[in-house]
Amino acid sequence: QQTIRLSNVCKSYGNYPVLKNIDAEVARGEVVVICGPSGSGKSTLIRTINRLEEISSGSITLDGQDIHAEKRTKELNLLRSRIGFVFQNFNLFPHLSVVENVTISPIRVKGVAPDVAHERALKLLDRVGLAEKAGAYPGQLSGGQQQRVAIARALAMEPPVMLFDEPTSALDPEMVGEVLAVMKGLAAEGMTMLCVTHEMGFAREVADRIWFIDAGQILEIAPPEEFFKNP
Ligand code: ADP
Ligand code: ADP
């Protein structure tokens, strides 16, 4: 049943502890929203899950497989490809077209045939409402469109889990809704999701549980109806 399990995860930068004894689980199909003040460790926490950041101690498993123990490059890349990641600043390849951004990882990492990857990419772009932008370059798109391409790119690896690190924070306000709509669609389809976001409307409506983190510690894990209840 459990998908991601963090056990006693600690991380320090030098002597400065950023994550303190994090113990938490994400169940299959669950949508978790991580919230907390700026500098509390939200971004660091989510980045440790696909090993964009190393941890100092503890363990993080995906379906029982220890992500931080894997030392073999190929196995680690396969493991990481099962965890889709969407960044605040999109991180698209600027010199590749939209459709190439979506096909490159399946072709390179998974050995999917280019024509098969291309067909799947077009379907994913259609799903995020960008079929007509397949041949465009990221620089020609709005922020909201670029972020939807980034979501399609992550989905192209068919990950069982998607992580979002403030996916709407870099967007102009009028583009936030189109990205949240794609995320809501994924949640409705049963995707397991872990999202750092300040969008409390999304948290209320879509989250199964909220993790509240402060100064590197999880202080509360609760469903939104409980979390947002007036004290
Ligand atoms: P949040 O996402 O909640 O705003 P972060 O995870 O970005 O918090 O940062 C948590 C703390 O760790 C902050 O005090 C930040 O300054 C610090 N920090 C983040 N990255 C580094 C780093 N590479 N080196 C040193 N300190 C860092
Ligand atoms: P965000 O809150 O959007 O994550 P930050 O300003 O916290 O952005 O961090 C931006 C980058 O700088 C991140 O890669 C983070 O790891 C790094 N960083 C943050 N705080 C520090 C710090 N005190 N020392 C070194 N690097 C840091």
Based on the model shown, name its key terms.
231 residues; alpha/beta; 6-stranded mixed beta sheet; 4-stranded antiparallel beta sheet; 8 helices; binds adenosine-5'-diphosphate
What is this structure's SSE topology?
Blueprint: E1 2-13, E2 16-27, E3 31-35, H1 42-49, E4 57-62, E5 65-66, H2 73-81, E6 83-86, H3 98-110, H4 114-127, H5 143-155, E7 161-165, H6 173-188, E8 192-196, H7 200-206, E9 209-214, E10 217-222, H8 224-227
Parallel strand pairs: 3-8, 3-9, 6-7, 7-8
Antiparallel strand pairs: 1-2, 1-4, 4-5, 9-10
Helix pairs in contact: 3-4, 3-5, 4-5, 5-6
The protein binds adenosine-5'-diphosphate (2 copies).
Q: How far apart, in Å, are the first and last alpha carbons?
A: 33 Å
Major β-sheet profile: 6 strands, mixed
Computed structural class:
alpha/beta
The best one-word shape is globular
Q: Percent of residues in beta strands?
A: 25-35%
Tell me the radius of gyration.
17 Å
Order of strands, main sheet, comes to 6-7-8-3-9-10
Bound molecule kinds, no repeats: adenosine-5'-diphosphate
Question: Please, how many helices?
Answer: 8
Helix content: 25-40%
Mean pLDDT: 96
Oligomeric organization of the protein chains? single chain
Produce a short descriptive summary.
The protein is of the alpha/beta class and 231 residues long. It has 8 helices and 10 strands.
